[in-house]
Amino acid sequence: MKSREQEYKEIFIAEALEYYDALNRHISELERKPQDDQVLAEIFRLLHNLKANAKAIGYLQISDVSHKLETAFSLIRNKELNFSDEVVTVLFDGIDLLGDLINNIDNDSFGEADPVLLRNLDIIVDSLSDSTIELAKVQKYNTSRNLSLSDLIYIQIKKLDHLLNLVGELMIDRDRILSISRELENDDLKSVSSHLYRITEELQYSVMDARLVAIGSLFNKFPRIVRDIAVAEKKEVNIELSGQDIQIDRNILQIITDSLLHLVRNAITHGIEKPEERIKKEKPREGQISLTARSDRDNVIIRLTDDGKGIDLKQVKKAAVDRHLLSAAVANELPDIEALSFLFEPGFSLAKEVTEFSGRGVGLDVVKNAIDSIGGRISVDSVKGKGTTLTLQLPTSIAVKGALLFEVDEIFYAIPLMHTESVVSLDKDELHEVGDVLVANIKGETITVAYLHELLNAKETAMRLGDKTKLKGQVQDIIIVSYNNRKLGLIVDKLYRQQDIVVKPLSKPLDKIDLYGGVTLLGTGKVCLVLDVPAITRYFTNRR
Q1: Cα(first)–Cα(last) distance of the chain, in Å?
Q2: Are residues 200 and 217 in the same domain?
Q3: What is the total count of domains within the chain?
Q4: Mean pLDDT of all residues in 75-98
Q5: By the 8 A CB rule, do 437 and 450 touch?
Q6: Where are the alpha helices (DSSP H) in 213-335?
Q7: Which of 108, 447, 467, 480 has a C-alpha 20 to 30 A away from that of 216?
Q8: 102 to each of 23, 66, 373, how far by Cα in Å?
Q9: How confident is the model over 223-240, as pLDDT tens digits?
Q10: CB of 386 within 8 A of CB of 307?
Q11: Distance between CA atoms of 211 and 288, rounded to whole angstroms?
């Protein structure tokens, strides 16, 4: 894995070379139209950005030359310096020097900047008008310069999206060919299909790797954001970052950017107390926020922690009852971890006042929907008076997902591993009927259990998911799924294996069926429906 410094350096070089090409283009335009203020402004902007970027990453020579050129163009913009032939020549040479410095950034043997040239730049910079310029002998612009291309290129994300979709299609066909080669028992076909598998897998990971960016590109924006919100809220807040070098799909990072910003705002406005309040509680006057990232197999875990007031669960339950989301009797018996899940219900808020940064009708449900859209998970843990932790579990790729395959009524289904907690086998006698649902004690937790056959095939009016007589066999295979702090056991007929799948959206009108999140094609050629765990979990919550 690349170091953070190496990645920042590559980004800098790619941007710097773009700036260099643009500067050459614009200065040529300016030579033809010296009074074009728009072109002058763009040249000034490019040089200013290049100077700042080079200084930030430690390339002081590039920063110095950019600064001198920026100052020269500032004089031209302010009509204090004419864009004469002599000045044009020096500025062209100065921009060429920038190109040489950028292209030879790793070349230790590359000499210092040309002192004749730098003196000319200084003369222009130090002059208040062109009448006082005393140019030294200048080597005229060399039209026979060698052209060179960068080893780095920018690629539009939509092109990588298209490429990844094609790889997904290839994976489906690859699995089909592998299955056929096993059926035919042809050695040549087996050899070719085995090679195809390796090449396709390598291609898949190569494309996915090309889409990865360091999470620090987002994390490093937060210290300034935290400072601004804290000042507006009259609070003192410090943020600690870690895991900035963790790699994640660029599209996923883009999708969660607004969500993470909303969560950080919430942590400051609703979580962290004002300094005087913290002192009364014998806490440090400065609140602490921690934003961390780490890799976990095929997922990235982002954790946001604050040491604020925490969440009052009694308040949450009362608000849920007031909004008629559940009855008072059910609320009293509700486990704490399930009570926290109501924070993600549409329109649910405990905010008592509207501030500049919160309380404007954008709730945690918007955050949750964004994370759901990429097949991720969000959970919350809080201790009143101590603080709150939000955990985001995100896939590293959108198109290809790990899934658990199983069978119900001779039809293949898949559940994304992101929502799969565990798989257990229970005797039928360990399932208990409570009302119209089944429950089981699994690892000390009482979990609602449903037979998927009944859920997927029975009519709403006739549905009674607590009828054990409809179960096949004495021992039941159960997949424990989790969503929004709620667990549910799904009884299946037959378990198969874990497998990477490419999920395709369902066609109309099937796309309106909430229980299905998409479809994939197995190597055998059979269609496999992908279950939507959030929709199934919501269904049971509403029934209760």
Answers
A1: 48
A2: no
A3: 4
A4: 78
A5: yes
A6: 216-219, 222-232, 250-266, 275-280, 313-322, 328-333
A7: 108
A8: 13, 11, 41
A9: 888 888 998 899 999 999
A10: yes
A11: 33
The amino acid at residue 424 is V
Residue with tokens 């939509």: 158
User: Token pair 């809080």 is at which residue?
Assistant: 382
- Of 395, 429, 460, the one marking the end of a domain is 395
Query: Within 13 A of 106's CA, how many CA atoms are on the CB side?
Result: 7
Domain residues for the domain of 484 are 400-543
In a domain, 334, yes or no: no
- Same domain for 44 and 190, yes or no, is no
Output the average pLDDT for the chain: 80
Bigger pLDDT: 149 vs 143: 149
User: Are residues 80 and 61 located together in one domain of the fold?
Assistant: yes
Do 411 and 292 meet the contact criterion of CB atoms below 8 Å apart? Answer: no
Do 63 and 80 belong to one domain?
A: yes
Rg (CA), the chain: 31
In this predicted structure, which of 203-212, 222-231, 486-495 has the lowest mean pLDDT?
203-212
Domain end residue (candidates: 190, 210, 230): 210
Tokens of 228: 């601004």
Whether the CB-CB separation of 412 and 522 falls below 8 Å is answered with yes
Looking at the structure, tell me whether residues 186 and 247 fall in a common domain. no
Domain check: are 361 and 480 in the same one? Answer: no
Question: CATH number for the domain including 192?
Answer: 1.10.287
CA distance 472 to 428: 9
Q: Which residues pair with 413 in a beta bridge?
A: 406, 529
Residue 48, token pair as written in the block: 């200013």
Q: What percent of the chain has pLDDT over 70?
A: 84
Pair 380, 287 in one domain: yes
pLDDT given at position 361: 36
Instruction: Indicate if 435 and 366 belong to the same structural domain.
Output: no
Model pLDDT, residue 292:
95
Percent of the chain, pLDDT > 90? 14
The pair of structure tokens assigned to 289 is 């926020």
Q: What pLDDT is recorded for position 362? A: 46
Region for residue 243 given its phi and psi (left: phi exceeds 0; alpha: psi -120 to 50; beta: otherwise): left
The reply to whether 124 falls in a domain is yes
Give the residue from 318, 313, 301, 303 showing the smallest Cα distance to 337: 313
Instruction: Tell me the residue length of the chain.
Output: 544
pLDDT digits (tens, 9 = 90+) for 329-364: 888 877 777 788 888 877 666 655 434 334 333 478
Asked if the structure places residue 145 within a domain, the reply is no
What pLDDT was estimated at residue 397? 73
